[in-house]
Amino acid sequence: MPSVVACDKGHRCPSCREAAILLSKSGSLGSCQREGCGAVRRYLLTQEYPGKGSVKFELERVIRLYTDEDAANDGYDPMLYLLRRQDADERRV
After folding, report:
1. Which 8-state DSSP code applies to residue 8?
2. Which helix (H) or strand (E) holds 2?
3. What's the per-residue H, E or C state across 26-92?
4. pTM
5. For residue 54, what are the CA distances in angstroms to 8, 49, 50, 85?
6. Is the pLDDT of residue 52 over 90?
């Protein structure tokens, strides 16, 4: 699922994993850190469906299943994402 973390003005932000961890800890991605911007940052994902086109989602909430230490020790960081469809009142895990 292609994804990008960017502010509302289109400035790209740090890695998607770092953004997901920040969202899981604080409940927000905050604002763009680029000088003079300050626009809201969003984690956007696109799901492709064969024969039906694509659907755009925004990451609404993240639940990490491992601690920072467990993720470092095991070499992966499993997370559950709650996605909100951008053009409809629909949510998916």
Report:
1. T
2. none
3. HCCCCECCCCCCCCEEEEEEEEEECCCEEEEEEEEEEEECCCHHHHHHHCCCCEEEEEEECCCCCEE
4. 0.84
5. 21, 6, 9, 11
6. no
